[in-house]
Amino acid sequence: MSGDTDTQGVDERREFFRVDDSVVLEYRELSTVDASAYLDKMENDVPNRFTAAASFAATSRQMGHLLHSIRDISSDLARYLESLDGKLNMLARMFLVEELEVPEKNTCDVSISANGIAFSTATPQKVDDFLEIKIVLFPSYLGLLSIGSVVSCDASNNTDHPYRVAVKFAHLSDEEQELLVKHVLYKQTEERRKKLEEG
Fold first, then answer.
1. Own/partner pairs, 146-152, CB within 8 angstroms, 24+ separation
2. Taking a C-beta distance cutoff of 8 angstroms, is the pair 163, 124 a contact?
3. Which of 83, 140, 185, 187 is the most buried (most CB within 10 A)?
């Protein structure tokens, strides 16, 4: 019982790991009615061209133990399935690139975790307002689509974007949260590596 509690505690802490990052970010305001309807739609929606890469990546992670078992039976079959999986993920990333109206260089600086995101903006947002949020993570080119609620809006030192908005995700599947946790841990590892290289 204690082991389960410890594991749950670690998982909860991982959700709140936060890292500074550069992502493609798009958002728009939603009314309470629109947000409710949107959440219902997202619960039953199938992946689209924007979210296909994230959906495929989550499926790939789930298939990992199966591929390990298949490799014990036939290494050739396992290599074929891994190759096929790689091609599907590449195709999904191509879909995402086609969906993007802005290239990777047009990123914005954010603070992100599996629980939410904070960013600077030119226009203020009201606390408890709902936002539709589109995020593209690099270098994986994973597209995440979520509804979020504004938890704070404070003054920022950025003259072009004088408001710092913090948003809590209201809808992310367990698989999407796990992908975000993996991304955040990757970024933290990269930051530590760079600091070590810089001395």
1. 146/170, 146/171, 146/172, 146/176, 147/30, 147/35, 147/38, 147/39, 147/42, 147/171, 148/27, 148/116, 148/117, 150/125, 150/126, 151/116, 151/127, 152/127
2. yes
3. 187
| Number of CB atoms found within 10 A of residue 39's CB | 15
Q: For 69-85, what is each residue's pLDDT tens digit? A: 888 888 888 787 778 77
C-alpha closest to that of 138 among 20, 36, 23, 14: 23
Maximum average pLDDT range among 45-54, 79-88, 95-104, 178-187: 178-187
142, 57 Cβ separation under 8 angstroms: yes
**By three-state DSSP, how is residue 13 classified?**
helix
CB atoms within 10 A of CB 41: 9
Residues in the chain, total:
199
Residue 160 scores a pLDDT above 60: yes
CA 186 → CA 21, 45, 55, distances in Å? Answer: 11, 29, 19
Q: What is the DSSP letter of 51?
A: T
Greater confidence, 41 or 156?
Answer: 156
Average pLDDT in the chain: 81
- The answer to whether the beta carbons of residues 124 and 155 sit under 8 Å apart is no
Q: How many helices and strands (H and E) does the chain possess? A: 5, 6
